[in-house]
Amino acid sequence: NTLLRYGLLKNFELRLAWVISESMERINNQNSQTIASGFSPLVLGAKVAITKEKGLLPDIGLMLHMAFPFLAAESYKPETTSVSFRFAFGHTINEKSSIAYNLGARWEGDSPEVAYIYSISYGYGITEKLGAYAEVYGNFPEKLRANHFCNAGLTYLIKNNFQLDATVGTGLSGNQDLLLGTGLSYRFSY
Fold first, then answer.
1. What pTM does this model have?
2. How many whole angstroms separate alpha carbon 180 and alpha carbon 167?
3. DSSP designation for 40
4. What is the pLDDT of residues 31-74, one digit of tens each?
5. Which is deepest, 53, 74, 113, 119, by most CB within 10 Å?
6. Rounded to an integer, what distance in angstroms lies between the CA atom of residue 115 and that of residue 82?
7. Are 111 and 139 in contact (CB under 8 A)?
C-alpha cells in the first residue's frame, strides 16, 4: 500500500493511494499459487480538518476518496468508480495515549449498495520513539454479512520525519487469514 499526502493549506490535504496486489490460491492446503497480480484502482482524495480538539470536543476531519477503475490492472478492475467518505475523530487521553475513530460509508465499484465503515484505535507512547497501537475496524454492507477485523502493531520514530511500523492482524468474522505488514512513513519538508 502506498499513500501520498500533500498539504495545500493548514487544514486541507490532497491524497493519492494505490495498492500492488497479489492474490494467492491454496492448493492441497499446502502450496500457494498466484492467480492474479497488479495495481488495484488508483485512489484520489482529500482530507479537510473541521475542528481542533478542545475539551470534550475531538479533532474532527472529513476524508473523501474516489477509486478509478480505468487505472487498475485487469484482474482488479471494478465495473464502476468507487466512492467513500469518512469522518475522522481523535481524542488525547493524556500525554502518552490517544484514541481515534472513523465513521463513514463507501460504494464499491462492483456493487451499487452502500457499506457502512468504522474503525476505532488506541495508541500508546511507550518511549519518545517507540509506540504501540491496537485497532478494530470493519464494514456493514447493506445486503451482505458484516466484516470485522483487528490489528495491533508497533511504530518506531527513527527521526522526526521518518518512522517504521510493523503490524499483525486477523479477521473477527471467521475465515480470514493472518495479516502481517511492515511500513515506513517519511515527511518531506519544503
1. 0.81
2. 6
3. P
4. 566 566 677 778 899 999 999 999 889 999 999 999 887 776 67
5. 119
6. 11
7. no
